[in-house]
Specification:
The complex is a heterodimer. Chain A contains seven helices and five strands; from the N terminus they run H-H-E-H-E-H-E-H-H-E-E-H. Chain A is mostly helical. Chain A has a three-stranded parallel sheet with strand order 1-2-3. A two-stranded antiparallel sheet of chain A has the order 4-5. The radius of gyration of chain A is 22 Å and the shape is elongated. Chain B is of the alpha+beta class. Chain B has helices at about 5-10, 20-30, 50-60, 120-130, 205-220, 270-275, 280-285, 290-305, 315-340, 345-365, 390-415, 415-420, 430-435, 440-445, 450-455, 475-500, 555, 560-565, 570-580, 585-589; strands spanning about 35, 45, 65-75, 80-90, 95-100, 105-110, 130-135, 230, 245-250, 255-260, 375, 380, 520-530, 530-540, 545-550. The radius of gyration of chain B is 24 Å and the shape is globular. The chains are: A mainly alpha, B alpha+beta. At the A-B interface, helix 2, strand 4, strand 5 and helix 7 of A face helix 6 and helix 10 of B. The structure holds iron/sulfur cluster. The site of iron/sulfur cluster has 12 residues of chain A, from helix 2 and helix 4.
């Protein structure tokens, strides 16, 4: 594992190859981060069972430094959205996301979290968690096999290793990431950011009705 | 809740067949009770005004002590809503009764005072169909939230992505066009609002409604100390998913408690009513996602009851084998997670998952998928077992699993901390267990030897030799130990099934995406690992069900949570919840 730390262009003398690595500070930092991604202990539906299977001995995600599942969002780096996101649950998910400290990542696990999945047509299922919070990695499947989830983790590691201080927004702003306004449970779920749209839709519907009537 | 249920329940129930019981009711309540004459239907119709009298009579005089299922049907064509009840005396089939009311004034007396098990189910029926149960102690929405518009299961209510009444949709079949539903919605999402909705002046009533019943108890008890309302969940590592529990606590002691549902409400029934009968099968996998094989089986049996299709012998045996393997998986996980909750963090779960993986390998070999097997079909199973399956399964069933169950039991059972946390905690007496509609290990741990495989045998369970596990203290410890007993009995059934299984076909008829179903209704229940899992189907002769209802084990078992927890500490709530063993997919559907 440690071998990918030294850049291929750098020649480390043979006699100290076993003990010395040469890397930029940034590369070293990202390398450390990607190997200790702590997921939040957070499951929504069926996919969460496969996530637990992933944590158990056959697949064992402690190999990736991820066994420290945190029950508090404030201690977690990664939110695995494992399962169906319902309208009733979305405000809680957004709140949990807001409470996570930067740098934070979201992995959307399974068809439901990606886009609504088998229950998309239903009246209380959200068509994908990315409608409300930004997602870094999508893992397809219903449920994704643990192997697929491992692949997703590897993709996440790649992403983390590719980030630089120069362009990752959080490092640029040196503050907390943007708060996402909580959706509200109205007659149907509504996002405060969409109020104008809702009003416009109501007006155009009114116009349609009037047109039909007169 | 009524106290009479306790005094009356001790009476010796008279031995009556269901037909006799209908006769007695017709005689005793002339004009109020009449037979349901519609073709393919069973049971009696009761006038709404006399429902309470008839129900009390049934419970006290006919010995019908267990009300299993309450649900509703929207009979849109004749402008009526129908509240449907299935009750049992003990052995034998269900006693069915229904109340028909006007769609414009859907008021039915609540039966919570007669059978407390009606509590959550009446709320569900109110929420989804808008039947108002007069006299219900807390008639609130349960799966959606207070303030939600409309009653989704009414036939004239359309979801935002509504396309057509019934599947297969003309847009996809037979030409195979596809479009994204988002593109046709003005919000690009699964949303719709009533025309009078003003987003600026919306007051969020959903949360206040949740706390309201608890504040009432706090006032009534007139405690001198201050009670506090706290939340457990929906995101909490010990609620086994997204269950939320609101508790009124006095210091560390729980004064009252209310589970709050709906965080995983996935519109199972609405989607099911749009699908054709065989199309529903994969959705049933996702009800109780730990035991997909048993849920498949329960649904297939319900459709078979309606259509009269019989699966071939070999398929019957395969189904039993799969269902019993599922029971072992479920109990292993239930035990593992329960220990998790008392603080033996994750090690027992890792042990359980090890064995689960081996059983899942068998499922994957047979069905092609680890968790969502979608294996059972109406009239058989999807495919025959592949080569080498039986040898692998035999090694597991004869050798590895019996040893593992013993070892697993030895691991923690003598542990001092575990015993202190479990013995005498969360006691549910037998009388109450029946009254609140508890089933499965929860009921049998309270000393009631009630197992549907015995009292109303389905499939081929009458051919096997096994004991109904029962324990008598009704506490967390007994509910936990009974799962070991049941795993041993399952292994016994498995060994017999593996010896007797004949060769032959595994499916009656040919594979098709639709089947012919005669008009009528059917309720079929099985002994799922968690308890009584029932499917209620109404068909009007089309390829899609008119009504499709799941009698959810986990939801109804949770009715007893509050009374088991009162007086205990907060930490015990988590253990008691773990001992009930729920799956949120099935609670909320
Ligand atoms: S993607 Fe499939 S397995 Fe995962 S939560 Fe959705 S329905 Fe369940």
């Amino acid at each position: 594992m440690a071998d990918d730390l030294t850049h291929p262009s750098i020649k480390v003398p043979a006699e100290i190859q076993g003990t010395v690595r040469v890397a930029t500070w940034e590369r070293f930092y990202n390398w450390c981060r990607s190997r200790s991604v702590w997921p939040m202990m957070f499951g929504l539906a069926c996919c969460a069972i496969e996530m637990v299977a992933m944590a158990s001995s056959r697949f064992d995600f402690s190999r990736f430094g991820m066994e420290v599942m945190r029950a508090s969002p404030r201690q977690a780096d990664l939110m695995i959205v494992a399962g169906t996101v319902t309208k009733k649950m979305v405000p809680q998910i957004v709140r949990l996301y807001n409470q996570m400290a930067e740098p934070r990542y979201v992995l959307s696990m399974g068809a439901c979290a990606n886009g609504g999945g088998p229950f998309k047509e239903g009246y209380s299922v959200v068509s994908g968690v990315d409608k409300y919070i930004p997602v870094d990695v999508y893992v397809p499947g219903c449920p994704p096999t643990p192997q697929a989830l491992i692949f997703g983790f590897i993709q996440l590691h790649r992403k983390i290793e590719g980030q630089t201080w120069k362009d990752y927004t959080w490092y640029k702003n040196r503050g907390h990431g943007e708060e996402i306004p909580l959706p509200i449970l109205g007659p149907d779920l509504f996002d405060p950011r969409q109020i104008a749209l809702i009003e416009a839709a109501a007006i155009s519907e009114q116009a349609n009705v009037e047109q039909a009537a007169g | 809740m009524s106290e009479t249920s306790q005094t009356q329940a001790t009476q010796e129930p008279s031995v009556l067949t269901v037909q006799d019981a209908y006769g007695v009711l017709l005689e005793r309540f002339p004009g109020q009770v009449r037979m349901d004459e519609r073709q393919g239907y069973e049971g009696v119709l009761i006038e709404a005004d006399s429902l309470l009298d008839v129900a009390s009579f049934m419970r006290d005089q006919l010995g019908i002590r267990y009300l299993s299922s309450v649900t509703g049907v929207d009979n849109l064509p004749n402008g009526q809503l129908e509240s449907v009840y299935h009750a049992f005396a003990g052995l034998g089939p269900a006693l069915v009764f229904k109340v028909q009311v006007d769609r414009d004034r859907p008021e039915v007396p609540s039966l919570v005072s007669v059978w407390p098990s009606a509590d959550f189910q009446e709320r569900e029926s109110y929420d989804l169909l808008g039947i108002r149960y007069i006299g219900h102690p807390n008639l609130q929405r349960i799966l959606t939230w207070e303030g939600f518009h409309g009653h989704p299961l009414r036939k004239d209510w359309h979801e935002p992505y509504y396309e057509e009444e019934l599947k297969p949709f003309a847009s996809r079949h037979p030409d195979g066009h596809v479009y994204r539903a988002e593109d046709r919605n003005p919000f690009g999402m699964n949303l719709q609002y009533p025309s009078d909705f003003d987003p600026h002046n919306w007051t969020d009533i959903a949360q206040a409604a949740v706390y309201q019943p608890l504040q009432r108890t706090a006032l009534e008890s007139r405690l001198e100390t201050e009670t506090m309302v706290i939340n457990l969940g929906p995101q909490h590592p010990s609620t086994h998913g997204v269950l939320r529990v609101v508790m009124a606590v006095d210091g560390e002691t729980v004064v009252d408690l209310m589970p709050v549902f709906g965080y995983l409400h996935r519109n199972h029934e609405k989607i099911g009513e749009r699908c054709t009968f065989p199309q529903i099968m994969p959705y049933t996998d996702r009800l109780d996602y730990i035991c997909s094989m048993s849920t498949n089986l329960a649904y297939a049996l319900a459709v078979e009851k309606l259509t009269g299709i019989r699966p071939p012998e070999r398929a019957e045996y395969i189904r039993v084998i799969m269902a019993e393997l599922t029971r072992i998986v479920n109990h292993l996980l239930a035990i593992g997670f329960l220990w998790n909750d008392v603080g033996a963090f994750f090690t027992p779960v890792v042990y359980a998952f090890n064995e689960r993986e081996l059983i899942l390998d068998l499922f994957e070999m047979a069905a092609g998928s680890r968790m969502m097997c979608n294996y059972v079909r109406v009239g058989g199973v999807f495919e025959d077992l592949p080569d080498g399956w039986m040898e692998k399964a035999r090694r597991l069933v004869y050798d590895r699993l019996p040893r593992f169950v013993d070892e697993y039991e030895r691991l923690v059972v003598q542990n001092e901390i575990w015993r202190a946390r479990a013995i005498g905690v969360g006691v549910l007496p037998a009388e109450r267990a029946i009254a609140v509609g508890a089933t499965g290990p929860l009921l049998r741990g309270s000393g009631v030897p009630y197992d549907i495989r015995r009292v109303e045998p389905y499939s081929i369970y009458d051919r096997f030799d096994f004991d109904v596990a029962v324990r008598f203290n009704g506490d967390v410890y007994d509910r936990f130990m009974i799962r070991f007993d049941e795993m041993r009995q399952s292994l016994r059934i498995l060994r017999q099934a593996m010896e007797q299984i004949p060769d032959g076909p595994v499916q009656t008829g040919k594979k098709n995406y639709t089947i012919k179903v005669p008009p009528g209704e059917a309720y079929h229940r099985i002994e799922a690992p968690k308890g009584e899992l029932g499917f209620y189907l109404v068909s009007d002769g089309r390829p899609n069900p008119w009504r499709y209802h799941v009698r959810s084990t986990s939801l109804i078992n949770l009715t007893s949570l509050a009374e088991m927890c009162r007086g205990h500490k907060i930490a015990d709530v988590v253990v008691i919840l773990g001992s009930i063993d729920i799956t949120l997919g099935e609670v909320d559907r």
